[in-house]
Amino acid sequence: xxxxxxxxxxxxxxxxxxxxxxxxxxxxxxxxxxxxxxxxxxxxxxxxxxxxxxxxxxxxxxxxxxxxxxxxxxxxxxxxxxxxxxxxxxxxxxxxxxxxxxxxxxxxx
Amino acid sequence: xxxxxxxxxxxxxxxxxxxxxxxxxxxxxxxxxxxxxxxxxxxxxxxxxxxxxxxxxxxxxxxxxxxxxxxxxxxxxxxxxxxxxxxxxxxxxxxxxxxxxxxxxxxxx
Amino acid sequence: xxxxxxxxxxxxxxxxxxxxxxxxxxxxxxxxxxxxxxxxxxxxxxxxxxxxxxxxxxxxxxxxxxxxxxxxxxxxxxxxxxxxxxxxxxxxxxxxxxxxxxxxxxxxx
Amino acid sequence: xxxxxxxxxxxxxxxxxxxxxxxxxxxxxxxxxxxxxxxxxxxxxxxxxxxxxxxxxxxxxxxxxxxxxxxxxxxxxxxxxxxxxxxxxxxxxxxxxxxxxxxxxxxxx
Lengths: 109, 109, 109, 109
Known about the structure:
Four copies of one chain form a homotetramer. By secondary structure, chain A is mainly alpha-helical.
């Protein structure tokens, strides 16, 4: 993996972290937040994983590949939950999650 | 502050982190999770802050005092939210938060 | 503070996190890493604080202002350490730290 | 896995986090910190991974098993580095890492 691809993966994880945390905040404000419980939960899981992965890559961790493999899996799961919902923040989040999952999967391989 | 008090503050923060994350999980399972939105939110804030403070203290950060001051404030806010609710996990969480706020306040001073 | 300034502060913290973690990695590779011990230490403190602040802002934490105030202080301290050293990664890190400290200070006020 | 084993794994990860961060701090104070660069680096990786795993378990993350599998791997690597060194903090750290790796491996399986 080139230095450019490495930097791109860090930035994708940070972008996904921001969008997941925004979706978490927005879900907690929805009138149907009970219906959004799984989305709230996965948004946090995914935001925390993406932040952890970006941190590990930026400090050149020897475990970056395995961490990105796990990050891809969690992004995929969060995207699959978010895409079930019609809120704009959920649709936007699903898109960011799937994009990040792709980039992390390439990083891991 | 003695080494014993320092260790005690780390352990109080970690205990509070565990209880806040447990309360977060339990609130998301309640049928009235919309009513619990502020509690869910503060549980996460407090758990993350306590984990950050415990990490900083355990690596002997020169900023441990300021970090604990902020941690005390967030624990206090989380405790005040949790004590409004009748769920056993909220009562238990309020207690852990107020105890951690006290210990962090002493650490900070 | 406008939404644009808020987003700008998140991005400044994430940029500073990346540069601090890069400086940490580079310092550990220097032949004189003993001489770099304070820089390694502050790079980690600052990277972790910036990641914490960016996470808090992106989830719309009610404590964002106080967190950014602390972040500004830690960025300032890291910048002051880094600027003592002639390594290019330290100079770059000092610049990112001072810039982030400025933006966080405005966010906190 | 029983609730008791789950709690035990959280506590083992938090104990390992504390010991790794203490070893990191102590290594940075050693006169031969250049010689300790890999140990410093792995102490941070392991402390951060253990904190992440403990957080995930305490919030009942659906990814707890995969996270613990990765945590076991990083603990193992940190233990193998620490055991090369004669400092008491490294010996103590190696012991905590191998113990945590065992418990995480059981949790993951």
